[in-house]
Amino acid sequence: MKIAFYGSSLLSSYWNGAATYYRGLLSALARHGHAITFYEPDAFDRQAHRDIEPPDYARVVVYPATQDGLLSVLAEAGGADVVVKASGVGVFDRELLDGIVARARPDAIRMVCDVDAPATLAEIEADPGHPSRQVLPQLDLVITYGGGPPVVAAYEALGAPRCVPIYNALDPATHHPVPAEERFRADLSFLGNRLPDREARVETFFLDAAARLPERAFLIGGNGWDSKPMPGNVRHLGHVYTREHNAFNCSSLAVLNIARDSMASVGFSPATRVFEAAGAGACLVTDHWVGLDLFLKEGEEVLVARDGRDVAEHVRALTPERARAIGEAARRRIVADHTYERRGVELDALLREVAAAKRARSAA
């Protein structure tokens, strides 16, 4: 099938945590014979911070973040068999949502890929006039990269004909063990941009733990933290390119995952960082959220914390030997059960099923 995918950016992870999800999922989908075009706006300085050049699994169209640029790429939707609008493009989100319905062929699959479903649903539910309320019943499919049964129920209650989580996963060719690098050495590292619905949890789980262990070294990577007051034993890196993620994950005693507010409250939402760290064989410490046991086993493949005190206790008790054992166990589990190759099989089958159902309805 020809797939037109309108997203934030495939080429850059700068202020764009969904980049590795897009890359892993779409590269896997392309191996099933689909021809993918990814449309991304030239916005938020992302093109100046590219992690990759256009890949062989997708044609990438970078369009000006203007009305004319928007119209030029929406004009191509009519040539696709599957037209996808991703959440959080950042510019023209409403126009893109309306556009995929208006411009797609009647026989094409119209779908939304929501990479932040709990936050999106909270926004829709708070706004009786939200455009998604009118658009969702006109779609064929919603996929989300997390959220589990609560998100499925919420989307279908809003009129989406079908909602299926296609979870984050690992691309073992991209995220894997590498030698440690001195610039990334620490006892505990955290990677994530400074966002309003994450900052308080970073204070609770990361900065509080650092304050409790003044003799240990903490490292934080990501955009926006420059002006944040931090304990003296926390070092800030700024933006960490995806090509550096393996070294970042392999160079510290442990790596911390912190869910955003909405994802933590809904559960079933493992971030890309969970799979990246596990794929690199890192010892992962994560805040607690419902559904974690579907991906990693607490105490054996991941360490779980309810607050900064728990995080500090995990770091204090960890030895290099135990950290290595947990990291190796996590890598075995993720490589066996949670790769993008598996997600690609799942999404390919789903698209073919939805297409067949559309054809059957048209023939009836």
Can you describe what's shown?
This protein is 39% helix and 18% strand. The chain folds into 2 domains: 2-169 and 340-363, Glycogen Phosphorylase B (Rossmann fold), CATH 3.40.50; 182-337, 3-Layer(aba) Sandwich (Rossmann fold), CATH 3.40.50.2000. The two termini are 23 Å apart. The chain is built from 13 helices and 13 strands. It has a 7-stranded parallel beta sheet with strand order 3-2-1-4-5-6-7. The chain has a 6-stranded parallel beta sheet with strand order 10-9-8-11-12-13, with helices on both faces. Helix 1 packs across helix 13, helix 7 crosses helix 11 and helix 10 (272-279) crosses helix 12 (320-337). With 364 residues, the chain is an alpha/beta fold. The protein is globular and about 70 Å long. It has helices at 19-30, 67-74, 93-103, 117-126, 132-135, 148-157, 199-212, 245-250, 261-266, 272-279, 308-317, 320-337, 340-363, and strands spanning 2-6, 35-42, 58-64, 82-86, 109-114, 141-144, 163-165, 186-191, 218-221, 234-238, 252-257, 284-287, 303-305. Helix 7 (199-212) links the parallel strand 8 (186-191) and strand 9 (218-221).
Outline the secondary-structure elements.
Blueprint: E1 2-6, H1 19-30, E2 35-42, E3 58-64, H2 67-74, E4 82-86, H3 93-103, E5 109-114, H4 117-126, H5 132-135, E6 141-144, H6 148-157, E7 163-165, E8 186-191, H7 199-212, E9 218-221, E10 234-238, H8 245-250, E11 252-257, H9 261-266, H10 272-279, E12 284-287, E13 303-305, H11 308-317, H12 320-337, H13 340-363
Parallel strand pairs: 1-2, 1-4, 2-3, 4-5, 5-6, 6-7, 8-9, 8-11, 9-10, 11-12, 12-13
Helix pairs in contact: 1-13, 7-11, 10-12
